[in-house]
Write a structure and sequence with these properties.
This protein is α+β, with helices and mostly antiparallel strands. Among the domains are: 55 residues; 34 residues, no CATH class. It contains two helices and five strands.
């Protein structure tokens, strides 16, 4: 009986049998491996470092959110105020005015110096009448 390897035929009695080749190759498979004490200590140290980093990130994030929250509040207030100016089409400002106390007519008149418009004219009150000019 003659036998040949690797995809050749082998004679057995009267029938021929084809022998299929065996192929070997190497691959990486992810398999469960028990950790050594040294590896456990190393991973424990790395875990502690990662937890510390996480705590620091949380603290920085909280601080950053507070800063951004403050900036956002300022921006919201400004946008609201400017929006009110646009809607109302005016803004209160300090404007220099002339106050005229006329003791003959017993009237007080307030005039804007920037436009010359009279913004108030009324009868003088008792306190104003008692303050006569010298």
């Amino acid at each position: 009986m003659a036998r040949k390897k690797d995809a050749e035929t082998v004679e057995e009695g009267q029938a021929e049998v084809e022998v299929k080749p065996t192929i070997e190759k190497k691959e990486q498979w992810a398999l469960k491996c028990e950790l050594t004490d040294e590896e456990l200590l190393s991973f424990g140290s790395k875990m502690a470092d990662a937890q510390q980093e996480l705590a620091e990130c949380d603290a920085e994030l909280k601080s950053f959110k507070e800063q951004i929250g403050g900036r956002k509040a300022v921006a919201e207030a400004a946008a609201g105020q400017y929006g009110a100016y646009v809607r109302q089409k005016y803004q209160h400002r300090n404007v220099e005015c002339r106050i005229e106390l006329n003791y003959e007519t017993e009237t007080m008149t307030v005039t804007r110096l920037d436009t010359g418009a009279v913004i108030d004219s009324r009868a003088m009150n008792r306190d104003e009448l008692e303050r006569l000019p010298m």
